[in-house]
Amino acid sequence: MKQNFLRWSSTLAATMAASLALLTGCHNNNAPANNSGLIPVRLQADWYPQPEQGGYFTAVAKGYYQAEGLDVTILPLGQYTSGLQVVSSGGAEFGLGASDQILEAVSNGLPLMAIGATMQHDPQAVMVHKNSLVRDFAGLEGHTVAAQPGATWFKFIVSKYHLKDVRETPATHSIANFLQDPNYIQQIFVTSEPYFVGKAGGDFRTMLISGAGYDPYRVFFTRNDYLAQHPDVVAKFVRASIKGWQEYMRDPAPANALILKMNPAQNPEQMQYTIQALKDGSFITGADPSGSEIGKMNAARWAATNTQLTQLGVIRKQIDPTTAYTLKYVQ
């Protein structure tokens, strides 16, 4: 999903990928089933193992995928790799991303379709120092923001608030500059960076980008051809994944043990912070804390995001947004 701004070596990435494969079952995907009679599929994650992927790890740890007849391998994503490209090129059957990314990808010809929501709301935010004079997004005028180059949310903020003098600098994937510079402003995920700033003794405030009206889903998706050829497998994957998320919000312990094993850079305190942030922001559940809305999406939200992307010029080739997602498996 997010980059949690930790530096990783390619050796570690390879080691983690191999370890995950051994644990969750990496098999030749040309065969319809492995020796255990399970159908092997791969989920391309959006970063290294972390609580923001906890529902999928719960489904592995508690056997929900296996109960559906699936043998799921979760693949970590390196910093400079595109999960959209991995899935569209056949490197994995499923992937994690965001609804705005899917719409843009489909408009550019990638054969992808979102099949469910990982998060009802995106935890991306802008972080400023507690004493900063920047109190809202309009207050970014005249300031520099460290952000992912070409970030769509940044274009939206500039357009909505008619900012004429706001500068964008590439995010350093670190909180070091923030801690050293009282005027530093950066893009973050409220589930991650605030924890590290707090541990370092820093004071901060955050402004959720969704609060400005740009509110894509975090989603899981597949290829169009895979969906057409294996709708039963897709249905099983969606069911088990949603069940995993519902359980993770109640009992994260089994998944967290698995995440810690695969990603030693995490620690229990950090993970608990993330889980509490996910709960406090209703990012996974949406407005209903019972979990009944987990995984669900609606056409109005997709249409609104598509309109925003079109108005921003991110989507240049008009598409029917309903070609980028299906509600069949989450209704």
Describe the structure.
The chain has 13 helices and ten strands. The protein is α/β, with parallel strands linked by helices. The radius of gyration is 19 Å and the shape is globular. The longest helix is centred in the C-terminal third of the chain and has 20 residues, at 231-250. A five-stranded mixed β-sheet has the order 2-1-3-10-4. The chain has a three-stranded antiparallel β-sheet with strand order 8-5-9, covered by helices on one side. The protein has a two-stranded parallel ribbon with strand order 6-7.
Brief write-up:
With 331 residues, the chain is of the alpha/beta class.
SSE diagram, text form:
Blueprint lengths: L9 H15 L14 E6 L9 H8 L2 H4 L2 E6 L7 H6 L5 E5 H9 L4 E8 L4 E6 L14 E4 L4 H9 L6 E4 L5 H5 L5 E4 L3 H7 L4 E5 L9 E6 H6 L1 H20 L2 H10 L5 H13 L18 H14 L19
Helix pairs in contact: 2-10, 2-11, 5-13
